[in-house]
Amino acid sequence: MSDHESSAEYPAHWGGGVSPLKVSYGKLFMWFFLISDALTFSAFLSAYGFMRHKFAGEWPIPSEVFHHFPFIHKELPLAYVGFMTFVLIMSSVTMVLAVEAGHRKNKKQVLIWMFLTIIGGFTFVGSQAWEWFHFITGTEAGHYKDLIIDGVLQKHQLVHGANLTYNEYGNSLFGAFFFFITGFHGFHVFSGVIINITIFIMVARGIMEKRGHYEMVEKVGLYWHFVDLVWVFVFTFFYLL
Amino acid sequence: MEFHDDFPQYEFRDQHGEAEGKTQRRRLWNVFWIMLGVTIFELCLGYYAATKGVDKTVLKVVFISLTIVKAYYIVYAFMHLGHEVKAMKWIIIGPYTGFILYLVFMCTVTEGTYAKAHRISPPDTKYEAPKEGASEATEAPKEKEAEH
Fold it and tell me: A147: domain CATH number?
C-alpha cells in the first residue's frame, strides 16, 4: 500500500494535524512517567505487605510505634501522620486551584495558590524529618534483642530506636521498609517542591503570560497530585493497617 | 533543522471564563470535603481499632476500599483524567490495572501460598510494645529464664 492510498483511506488521521488523544505532548508524557513511577511504588508496597505477612509474628503494630506529636507529651496514635496527610491533601487542593486559575489566565491567583502549595510541601517534608528523628532515636526504655554483629550472635542487647540493620520495634525489615518507602516518597515531595518553585518563578516573570497558556502549571500539578496519591496509599498500607 | 509543530494547540482547549471557573471551583472544594471526611473517618477507625480492637479482615477491607475511593477522586477530579477523551483514560488506567492485578495475584496466590507454608516462626522472644518506665531490672531476669 502506498502512502497515497493510506492517506486517502484515513485522510483525517494519517494526513497529520490530528491528535486522537487530544492532549499535548508534554502532558501525555508526564502521564506515562507517572504510570512508571506508580508501578515502582506499587512494587515497594506489595513487597512490604509480602514481608509483613512472612514475618507476621515479629512485625510491630504501626499505631504503637508512631504515636508522638510535637509539644504534646502524650501517646496519640497516628495523630501526626493524620496531620501530615491533611497537609498534603490541602496542598493538592491549592495546586488544583492554581491550575484552575491558570485556565482563566489569572496570573495573580496562580501565584497565590502555588505559593501556598510550596508552603504545604515544605511543611510535609519537615514533618517527615521530625518523624524520622523520632523513629531513629526511639524510646528511652528501648528493647532487648538478639543481634548478629560482625557475624557473631550477641544475645540480649539493649536497642534504642532504629538504623538500617536493626531496630527496637520488631523485625529489621520494618525499619528498612520505613526508611526506603517514606524516604523515596519524601524525595518525590522534595523534588516536587523544587519543580513548583521553578514554575512559580517562571509564572512570576511572566513567561506563561507571553506563551498565552499556563500548561506548565498543569503539568507540575499532575506530578504534585501523584505525590499526594502515593501518600494516600503509603498512609493506608504503612500506618493504618 | 528547525522544529515546526503545526498540531492544534490543545493547551487552549482547557481555558475557560469566570462563570465556568466558579462551578469548577465549587466541584473541587466538594471533592476536598469528601477526602477530608474519608481521612478523618479512617483515623477514627484506626484509633478505635488500636484501643478497642476490631476484626483484622474487616479493617483491611474497609481501609483498602476507602483508599481506592480517595485515589479515584484524586485521579479523576484533581488530575482531570475524568475530562480527557475515552482513549486517553484507557491508556492510563488499563496497563496500570493489568500490572497491579498481576502483582496482587503474585503476592497473594503464587508467592503468598509458598510464604505462608514456609512462614518463619517468631523467635523465642515475642515482640512486645516498649512500655513506659520498663527498666532493665524487670526485663532482664525474664529473658535469662527463657535462655536456661
Answer: 1.20.120.80
